[in-house]
Amino acid sequence: MKTLLASTALAMLAGAAFAQENPMVGGAEMPATNDIVTNALNSADHTTLVAAVQAAGLVETLQGEGPFTVFAPTNDAFAALPEGTVETLLLPENKEQLTQVLTCHVVGAEVMSAALAEMIAADGGSHPVETLGGCTLTAAMNAAGDGITFTDENGTVANVTIADVDQSNGVIHVVDAVLTPASAEASDTTEGAMADQPEATVTAEAPADDTGGNPMVGGAAMSPSMTIVENAVNSADHTTLVAAVQAAGLAETLSGAGPFTVFAPVNAAFDALPAGTVDTLLQPENKDQLTKVLTAHVVPGTLDAGALAAQADADGFVHLQTVSGDALSVQIRPSGNAYVFDESGNVYRVTIADVMQSNGVIHVVDGVLLPAS
């Protein structure tokens, strides 16, 4: 029985025969001229996957020539895992296990859905799919016969919800479940399967002795020798913020010399916005509005808690102007807690202060700061 990796030629022929305009994914267009990572960054439905790929250091690999087929679980798929699973996998000490889970969603060939359907039919209703993570998935048609499913080594079934999202270095099939290896323990198979791929080095972990006294954020060490963006991508609590920064095209700016003070809302802060708000802001046509919201969280200069306290008036207030031109006020209360007031009348608490960066400082906040309506 032929495996999927041995069927590359058939896949290429099928891909050419069924070439068509890409579907939208996560509210964003998917240009076939972009690589897998570049397109995934634009999908509002894949912020958790992107954060995981960054934490595992697989960005450079999946931006390479490939070709790759990626079965891309949505945010809801990750959210359906047992409580705490994602947070645990994103911890630096679990990088090897995270890498194996992610590479169990990657095949070292470009295979379109039509090719998969032919293989399934040729093999009598199911077809083995060997992944770069060393685990084998079983591809089959769904009960209605109009879609493809993948079953992992633990019996989890993932449905392909969006097929054939063509990329410059392969293809993405969106799936509704996370596929896992048979063993919860990471193994050496990942290293062997990826041996012929480029080494991934995009996301740097902060060494244990390089925190400079910084607090942990989102389960990750925060290195003062790294930029705001480099540290933010390692925080499991800031995947939505990172996706928004990337969608707005602000990653390069916030990786620059600065310095900047960033009030960084956690994922739960974005989740607390009215339903659909984040998805709407992440659409390409709303880039200007998204940029204004994000830059309303950024103040020029490095304003740590000491600097803010030194500038505070008798009531503990410091009045600031953000990069967007909007006003923020920070109040340092007698308890030492800090609260941020935006132009829309919202008040949010600084939950983690003084996360020092090479180009400024981050203060984590529990709400999204909004310009005046």
Automatic annotation (TrEMBL):
Signal peptide range: 1-19
Alphabetized Gene3D superfamilies for the sequence: FAS1 domain
Keyword Signal in annotation: yes
SUPFAM superfamilies in UniProt: FAS1 domain
Keyword Signal in annotation: yes
Xref: SMART domains: FAS1 (SM00554)
Top-level taxon of origin: Bacteria
Keywords for the protein's UniProt record, in alphabetical order: Signal
Region annotation (Disordered) ranges: 183-212
Entry-linked PROSITE patterns: FAS1 (PS50213)
Any single Gene Ontology cellular-component annotation: extracellular space
InterPro entries per the UniProt record, alphabetical: Adhesion/Biosynth-related, FAS1_dom_sf, FAS1_domain
Protein name, entry field: Fasciclin domain-containing protein
